[in-house]
Each structure stands twice: as structure tokens, then as C-alpha cells.
């Protein structure tokens, strides 16, 4: 007998219900974009950190850090578009001359923009612009996601100026989320949890993994959250593959089901996994699911202010080791870290993993997903996210209650 939360509906019914009732309207009505003042506050913090560390400037090519500090979303390409942040909180943009009008659509006429022509080497111009800004003494920090060709060109153009990893600035700012950022992620996660709940209800014997993934994408879009940012749908023994198998699968009675998906609200991510059984769970399935639940709870309770990130990972592994599974990263057991940071990137600093001694602090946000993988049988991953408050961890979404009550 299948749980009342699994099966019994259809994609058409669930999508019609979203579109007709918008059941999360109270949540979505609170969504507001990041304000110009918030972007300026981020620049001011970065500038303070640069002064404290003796860093001459921070270069941010196209990517999420560029958006985080400036509000400019730009596509990475072979042409350099970037922002230079200075220790006195100036922001100067660098872009090909023919892109100026496009930048000003976002940045406005008041933005400081330096232009380069197609026949010019932008790295050499950056050298001159850094000198003009008084930022040519001391190391230049560059975002960790900077393409090699950009870093290499800067290295050649700035032989007397050291290049360092900009995460000493960017990660230090981005890993501590504001109340506004947490609210945006709460909206995204609330949407995805409801989509997960509806996905469970459309399951039937013979449904394919692609049908389920297509429904999830349509449901995210129906909520106005855009397409799914990713979607893993696994059935049966293939649920033991952490990031899902290739190819199409067909659901059968008694299969384990693992669905991991997310969306974005105002560029901030959700990422939620649910595991359950289509049909009546057997004793083995129920036992492993309960062990996964225990490991997830242990990780959550270990996440206290000032505790090292690695201690959260260790708490989950102790539960698994006590049940006879690997205490390390071998199988059967947990082959990956217990959790990752999340925000503008689905995986970002910092991480709940062995060796990370960074203490937990207010504003940090993490996944909690100590997956159990048993090759040849099945896998179970329960993934919810939490954020750190001055009173300790707080869930974004309510974790599953039981294998036959996942929502």
C-alpha cells in the first residue's frame, strides 16, 4: 500500500492547482530584490577587508561575485567585462567599448566605466587603470572563478604586482547572509518543497524519470521561479548514485525514489532532496531511511555557533559508523561532505566537511544531506537546509518525518 502522500494525482491536476490557487502567494508576495543600498553595503565591507589585509584592489570578472557586489549580471566570455573594487569603496567597471550601452541599462549613467577596443589588450589597460586609482601597490585579489586566460593575462601585465585569491574578500562577505538574502532563499526553498510534495503525488507505476523531471520544471515555472536549476530523479538501485544516473528509468512497485531539485528566486537558490519508497517499504528500506534521518538530525544539533564546520560532518558520520557503516568516505556510507554553503551559487563557501576548521557564525547557510549509499541496493538522501542564528541553527524547510511520510 502506497503512502497517502505518494501517488494518486496527476501532473495536470497539480499544475492546475498551482496556477489556480497559488498556495504560496503569502510567501511570494514578500519577495523583494536586493536594494542599491545593500549592494553599496557589500562594497563597503569588501573595502574594509581590503584595507585590513593590505590588498590593493579586488577584480571581479563576470560571475556571481560580480552580481553580489554590483548588481550587474553578465555572461562569461572571451572578452573581459569586470569590476574593480578599491579599498576606498570605489567601483570601476571594465568592458568592451561596444558593450557600454548594455552595461548602462543596469548601472545607469553615473557608473564609472572604462572601455577597451577590440584590438587592445584589456589587461594592459587594467594595469594603467589600477595606477590611476592608486591601486598599483600591494597585491591584486581576483575572484576565485576568474578564467585562467584572464588571470594569465593579468600576471603578464602586472609583473610587479602579486595576484592572490579573492576569496579572502568575496567568501568572507558572501558566506554571511543578510536577513534579506535568507528571506529570498526561504521563498525559493518553500517553492521547491511544495514542488517536491506534488512530484510525489504524480508518481505511478510505469512513470519515467523524465516525465517526473518535466513536471518538476513546469511546477517551478508555474510558481514564477523560472526553470528548475537542476533535477535528479532516480529509482530503485540507481538511487545509490549520488548525483543520479544517465538515461531514462521507469518506476516499479517497491522502488526507492530519490528526487533532488531546486530553483532560484531573485538569483538565490533552493536545493532539496526527498527519498521515499513507491509502495510499501520493506524492513531494510525503513531501517536505512531511519538511519539517514538520525544522521541528518545529529548534524543539525551539532551545528552551534563557534563549532568547527568539520564537527557537523563528524556528527553525521558517528551515527553511520555506529550502525556499521564507514566512518570515512568509503561505501557503504556517506561518500561526500555532509553539507555545502548556498546562496547565489548552489554550492559556495563554506562547507561542512572534514578538515574545515572555520567556526560556524550567524548568517551562514548550509545544506544538511548526509546521504547513505549502498551500491547494488539503493541510496537515501534527505536534504534540507538551515541557517545559523544567534540562537543556533534554524531549518529553512521542515525535514521529512518518516519514509512513508516524507512531507
From TrEMBL:
GO terms for molecular function: aminopeptidase activity; metal ion binding; metallopeptidase activity. GO terms for biological process: proteolysis. It holds the Pfam family Creatinase_N. Residues 42-175 form the Creatinase N-terminal domain. Keywords: Aminopeptidase, Hydrolase, Metal-binding, Metalloprotease, Protease. Gene3D superfamilies: Creatinase/methionine aminopeptidase superfamily, Creatinase/prolidase N-terminal domain. Residues 184-390 form the Peptidase M24 domain. Belongs to the peptidase M24B family. This is Aminopeptidase P family protein. It comes from Undibacterium rugosum.
